[in-house]
Amino acid sequence: MRQLTESANSATWIAEQSEASKIDLIGFSIVEWSAHKGESAAYIQTIEVHPAFRGRGIGAELLSRSEASARAAGAHTIELHVDVENAEAIGLYESRGYARQGREEHYYARHRAAFIYAKPLG
Ligand SMILES: CC(C)(COP(=O)(O)OP(=O)(O)OC[C@H]1O[C@@H](n2cnc3c(N)ncnc32)[C@H](O)[C@@H]1OP(=O)(O)O)[C@@H](O)C(=O)NCCC(=O)NCCS
User: Fold this and answer.
1) 0.85 cut: is pTM over it?
2) N or C: which terminal CB in the chain sees fewer CB atoms within 10 Å?
């Protein structure tokens, strides 16, 4: 993960909560991008919010900022894989304009399948 976050072709967004002098990390996302045949595409590597802070718009904000980073880097589309049983994440992506492109069997450990989602960055 360190290698990924330090790459010039990626952006990491962090959500923090501060209380008195204490700052806690409560969520983060990592997006990377690459060019293929002159077309730049981005990929959401990970997005996660601490369970106690879910359902408050933090995941949507992290996703939106990741998209903005990818767009600023010249990416025209953004893609991701998500576990077919991950209703929360699927809800997040579908509500933010991602469309299902396909399904990849055995993508995760223990033979779990993934959906592939994509969105034009326009
Ligand atoms: C997926 C995840 C990042 C969402 O973060 P979050 O902060 O709870 O999301 P938000 O509060 O911003 O919600 C954004 C949208 O997600 C969808 N959503 C959120 N919780 C949901 C749930 N329990 N069921 C269905 N959809 C849900 C809704 O469409 C919501 O939009 P709305 O509030 O306008 O209705 C969070 O659940 C998480 O960290 N999950 C574990 C890690 C993970 O699975 N990451 C994805 C890997 S592909």
Assistant:
1) yes
2) C
